[in-house]
Amino acid sequence: MRVLAHVDLDAFYTQVEVQRNPSLKGTPVVVVQYNPYGDLRTVKPSDNRLFPDSNGSIIAVSYEARKHGVKRNMMAQAAKKLCPELSIVQVPVAHGKADIQIYRDAGAAVISVLSSDGAICERASVDEAYLDVTAGAQQLLAAAAAAAAGGGDAAGDALQAQLGAGGSQQQQQAVDDAGAQPAAVGPLLPLPESIEGWHVADAAEPGAAGVAAWWARPAACWNNDELLLAAGAVVVARLRASVAQQLGYSCSAGIAHSKILAKLGSGLNKPAQQTLVPAAAVPGLLGPLPLPKLRQLGGKFGEELMTGLGVSTVGELAAVPLPRLEALVGLENAAWLQRLAQGKDDEEVKPRTLPKSISCGKTFRGASALTGLTAVHGWLSQLATELQERLDNDRRQHQRTPSQLTVSIDTLAAAAAGPDSAAVPGASAAIVQAAAAGPAAAAAGRATPQNWRAGVAAVSRSTPLRRPVAEVMAADALKLVKKWARDRGQGWKIIGIFISASNFVAAPTGASTLDSDSCSTASSS
DNA sequence: ATGGTGCCACA
DNA sequence: TGTGGCAC
C-alpha cells in the first residue's frame, strides 16, 4: 500500500511577502493584483509594494486576515472594511503585467526541500505538491523493527542506513514480519516527541490527543497499512520541519493512501498542521462531505452529478447504483466515480518537479479590450519578452528548451447579437439567445456590452518554437493572430492574450543566446 | 473591475 | 491540434 502526502503551503504568497518584509509578521496581510490599464510602469519585487489604497482583487489572504472574514477574490477595499488594519501588498509588475516570479522561485525552493530526501515529488502548482513517501515510511519501519528486535537501536539504524534505498526488499520483508506479529506493532514505531499540529481524520478526539489515542491503540488493532501511514506521517513531519527550518515557510499536509484523500486531508487542519487519513476514517470522512469538496467535482461535472442524481454528499454518490451512474456519465466515468466516492484513487505521484509548460498572459477587461493588430503586437512583445526571460532562466537551471509555441486569445465577436442577427461564432445559440432576451435586446443591431460578452470565445494556435527569443516568438505569435483575424473578418475584440512554451527537450546550458545571436539576427521585421 | 498560470481529457 | 474544464 502506498503512503502519499499532499503538501500545501499556507497562504503562500502572503508568507513570501511577510518574509520579505518581516514587520508584517503576525498581522493581517493580503496580496492583490492591480493593473491600471495601459500603464507599463514596473513595480519591482524590491520596491515598497504596500498599497493601502489599492483596490486590486485579492489572490492570497494571511490567516490573521481570514479571522476577519477576508476572502480570496474580494476587492481590497472591501476587505479593509472588514479589517481596517489590513496590509495590502501588490504583486510585482513587469512588462505591463503582474509578475509572480518571486512566488515561483519560493515555490521551487520548497519543492527542492521536499524532494531532497528520496520522496517522489510531483509539483501540483506553485504552492502545492504531492509526495509518495512509501519508501521512506518502509525504511523507517524497518529501522524501528530492527531496533526493537536487536535491542540496540543504534545498531539497527546503522544497518538500515547501510541498506539504504537498495535494501527495499529486506525492508519490505521486515515490515511484513512486523505485520505478522501484531503484538510487536504498538511499540514498534514510537510516537514522536512532538506531535503538535498533528491530527487523525475522524478521530474520537481532536488534535494531538486524538493522535496519541490512535497511536496508543492496542497492538492488535493496528494493521500494516496504518503502520505505514504512521511512519509516513513521521516522514512528512520531518519534511515540513525542513521546509520551516531551511526556508521559513509553514505548510500543511495530508497523509493517506491515495492522492484524493491526501489532498482532502491537507485541507482539514490548517495552517501549519498535518492530518492522517487512515482507511478506517474514510467512510466517516467522505460520507457527509459535500460533493464539490472533492477534487475534480468542484465544477460543472460535480454540478451535473448533483442535479442529475439528486445527491449532494459523497456518501450519497457512493450509494448510487452503478447502472444509474453509468446512464448519466458513461461507463468509464461511472467506475472512476464510484471508486472516488470511496476514496479509492489509483493516480500515481508523478516524479515531476518542473512545470511542463511556461506561459504568460494578460487579460484586457472592458474598455481595455484590444481591437487592432498594432495593440496585439505590442502586448505580444511584452509577453514574449517576459517569456524569454523565464525560458532563459529555465534553460540555465534545467538544461532544456521548449519546442512548441502556442498563442491563445480570448475574443469577443463584434457581430450584434440581436434576435435576427447571425449567430456569433464561438458562442452557443443558447447563450446568444439569452443575451438577446436580456436588457441588450432593445439595442439589437448595435454592439453593447451585454452582447459583446455573449460572444466570448477562446482560440489557440500552435507553431514550432524556432528560437526562444522574444522578437522571434512575438513575430510568430503575431502571424498566428493575423491569420486568425483575416479568417475571422472585421470586427473583433481581444480580451485576453496568452503565449505558452511547451514540449521541452534537452538542451545544453548557456549556448542559447549566443547561438541565436550568431545564427541570424532577430531584427528582421 | 475575479488575474495569471498550469494541468488534463476529449474530439 | 485545438477546445474546454478544473484548480488556486
Characteristics:
four-stranded antiparallel β-sheet, Dna Ligase, domain 1, Alpha-Beta Plaits, six-stranded mixed β-sheet, DNA-binding, disordered C terminus, 525 residues, 3 domains, alpha+beta
Quickly describe the structure.
This protein is an alpha+beta fold. Helix content is 43%, strand content 17%.
Instruction: Note the main sheet.
Output: 6 strands, mixed
- From the N-terminal CA to the C-terminal CA, the straight-line distance is 59 Å
How much of the polypeptide forms β-strand, as a percent range? 15-25%
The CATH superfamily of the largest domain appears as DNA polymerase, Y-family, little finger domain
CATH level-1 class of the largest domain: Alpha Beta
Rg (C-alpha, Å):
27 Å
Could you tell me the mean pLDDT? 83
Instruction: Work out the number of β strands.
Output: 15
**CATH fold group of the largest domain:** Dna Ligase, domain 1
Overall morphology: globular
Strand order of the largest sheet: 7-8-1-10-11-9
- CATH architectural label of the largest domain: 2-Layer Sandwich
Number of helices in the DSSP assignment: 21
**Structural class label:** alpha+beta
Helical proportion? 40-55%
Protein name: DNA polymerase eta
Pfam families: IMS, IMS_C, POLH-Rev1_HhH
Keywords: DNA damage, DNA repair, Metal-binding, Nucleus, Transferase
Domain UmuC: 4-298
